[in-house]
Amino acid sequence: MSDHPQAPVAPVQAFEPPYYLAVFTSVKTEDQSGYRETNARMEELVRKIPGYLGMDHAQTPGGLSVTVGYFRDADALTAWRTDAEHRAAQRRGRTDWYESYTLHVAKVERSHAFSRTDSTGPAQP
Amino acid sequence: MSDHPQAPVAPVQAFEPPYYLAVFTSVKTEDQSGYRETNARMEELVRKIPGYLGMDHAQTPGGLSVTVGYFRDADALTAWRTDAEHRAAQRRGRTDWYESYTLHVAKVERSHAFSRTDSTGPAQP
Question: Which residue numbers delimit the ABM domain (chains A, B) (predicted)?
């Protein structure tokens, strides 16, 4: 999961905790042949996972890429993690596309959102 | 916390769970006067928090900014959240620098890292 050149520019909202997130940070290799197509397919697939809530992505040109996926519960994340096509893409990623990456899977305990025009999400204690 | 033009390009490592992370996603306003200085000061301050583990940041030009801060435990995150100078910077952020943002605070249950030259971090089940 990654590049969203076409996505509207707005952070994913704050959901009611508890929910899960997966932080995927990566540095890519020089040769990104096939990455864009696979990435688009992964975005299509993850949206079909029951309990998938959304995704944030940013990439500094020539630098770090950070993707955060949000899921309603651990089962939703497990469904995504064990998807056969996703697993094949992960293998391809290790072989071809990623110089290095880190994955952090975490349970959200608190969330908060701010918007210049509207304040949403659970209030911060 | 945000821009790291000088940071080495490598994802923060996978630590031994449990640990905490804070995902801060934002879209900035046009006028970023004073942001760079405050951001540099915040990076200096957060590094002094006992239990601070590191930070990942990426920003798509003209798009979303994603910052992830890692902390050993909830106390470390609370110390950072309640720091007086950080609080003042947060207020300034809402007034001047952010069009919108979302904060997700979460406890890491699982982590994994990959590097082309070396595989680090706890093994994935």
Answer: 19-92
